[in-house]
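ESCALATION

Customer reports they have been waiting on this structure for their group meeting. Please prioritize. Original submission:
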Amino acid sequence: MDSPAEASFDRLTRLAARLMNAPVALVTLLDGDREYIKSCVGMDGAAGRATPVSHSFCRHAVEAGRPLLVEDAVADPRVRDTPAVRERGVRSYAGYPIRTPDGHVLGTLCVVDFHARTWSDDEQQVLADLADAATTEIAQRVHLAEQARSEAHYRRLVSTSPYAIYALDAEGHFVELNRAGEALLGRESQTVLGSYFGAIIAPKDLPAVERVFIDLLTGATDKALMEMDLMRPSGELRRVCVTATAIREDGRVTGIHGIGRDTTDEQVLLGEMKLLHLALGNLSQGVSITDERGRVIFVNRAFTDILGIASAAHAQSYVDALVPDAEGGQEEEIAEGVRDAGEWSGLVWRRRMDDGRRVPLDLFVSAVDCAEGGGRCFFTIVQDAAERLERERHLRRAERLAGLGTLVGGVAHELNNPLTAIKGFTALMLMDPRTLEDLEALEVMKREADRAAQIVANLRRLARDTQEEDTPRTRVDLNNVIGHILQVRGYSLGTHNIEVGTELDAALPAIMADRGQMEQVLLNLVVNAEQALAGRPEPRITLRTQGGERGVSVYVVDNGSGIPPETLERIFDPFYTTKAPGEGTGLGLALVHGMVADHGGRVHVESVPAEGTTFRIDFPAAEEGKAEPPPARETRNAAAETLRVLVVDDEDSIRRTLSRYLARRGHSVSVAAEGGEALRILESEGGFDVILSDVRMPGLSGDRLHARLRERGDGMDRRLVFMSGDALGDQTANALSTCEVPVILKPFDMETVAHTVEAVGRSGT
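Update from on-call: job pushed to the front of the queue and completed.
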């Protein structure tokens, strides 16, 4: 309102003064308590001046919203006291309202005379027409001002928009591009304006974009959404999502405008997210993501499989139903750990959704900020802990067996020497004529000594004796072994009315094994099952084989009395047995465990008291094409010839037994209590055909004796044969592997000693 006078209003006031034959004409605008003279004729210096509304004639017309006609101001009480009348001598006034397009009265177009006068109808009509013209002029001014403001606002929006805004003419040339567009294209607008849009589009996308451009120009479509690669001057490609809208004027398409958004980084992020989603979805560990209110955001397939959830859609109901575990009571501990440290990990037990079975899980929970404003998400990783717990049980069992093995190995070593003497002297006594009663007694002694020797052999095997001769391993068909075991035990199983079932995999791969040990493993399990079925109704044993990812599996299943949970952990311990005294030594399952482990296998057992027990043994399958070792050739048992033999042992009973037996075989025998004495005898009596020596002795041990014999250089080290009753000693094992001489393990048969001595003696002659 207080802007300077404008030419259009000046023309209206001059025209009003002329047509109304009035000395003064004005355009006034009122705002609150001020009156602004926008244009004036006949009052020098009045234009642009503001005066209080109280001094104004015009306020009456504005307030009333209709024309104000004053013929004699001095006589008119409405205006006679105004300064215009008192000070300037105004006597007559005619003013018509000027309105905005919405009808609001802004001011007046008025004429003033310094003489009293009557305003004719024609004069009033002229003034009304001129006021309407002023109203029209103001409306145009308002429209132009609003248009200017709108355009300025649009320009600001376009200029500051984070997205590229463009316009093309009908030929596809750029006519407008904002700063964001310059940044996207890597070009300044002056280098782009006037150029064809196809110059910046990757060749692979250009044909499709040009087809859309033609559809927009021809009116086939009004809008389009496209994705394309744009080329920067550096050769870099940016992926862009572009909208395009036809510009129409008088129904004709004159150009295209739209917005472009750089989605390159989004595409990279989307690719990473897809890759992450794929990775999480294919993890073997279960993964879930929930928000603070427990709403499930994501679960992978492993999560639903581990917890028995039908599908991801059912995961929410599982999480909602999760309550503190009755037996574990760890929920508070987990919540406190996550609250205080941000994460928690440990073993928990959860019930599967499908069958309600409790399963052990390794659980990891972590809280992370996932949204602005402090929102958090909870990442949960679960893994079935059953296999880990089983491995730990096996490890604990192996550790116990290792400790027990050391103990039983020492016991076996201590038993070897007296058993060797007993067996030796029994064999000597049986070589002489005896009464029938004496022969029976000796046979009992021999049988019981052999039984004790077998127990010692089992102890040695249990202790995984490294000194024992390696038994050749061949390709073994476990189906065939099972058939042999059932044939051996057929009579016993039949007499106890035990039904036997077999489910044998016809395509079962072979394993590399000691067949004798495999027979003993399965025989022990079958005998165990027989004993568990004593007195049970409808007793049944099922033997099953299966080839698969684990290699080869053998199952021995019975419906017997089962094994109590408190006993299950100890069944593989040596000497542990639940049988009545005299019914077992407690070595059977310990031997099974040791033999299977020695073949790289694992033994698993599941048992439910009063329902039955299942033993599963897993073996690695034999490599394809691995040949069996050639059969050992039998040694010809040639007639003995007189040999000079030196027996070296710290046990007097062993020396006497061997010297008497070998003498009865026609050999000349000398004895020594340790290696040093043996060397002195060699010096005094000369060489021997065979030196039969213990390994572990006080004084000079067997391995040191071998080293001294090698130093002599006369070949006596090749005449040496070791005897050993040490089931576990690492030093003995190392000594034997270094010396590379024949070894006879105690307790031995005299015939075995004789054949070995005579074979070595013959080889040196």
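Sent to customer with the following note: DSSP finds 22 helices and 28 strands in the chain.
Escalation resolved.
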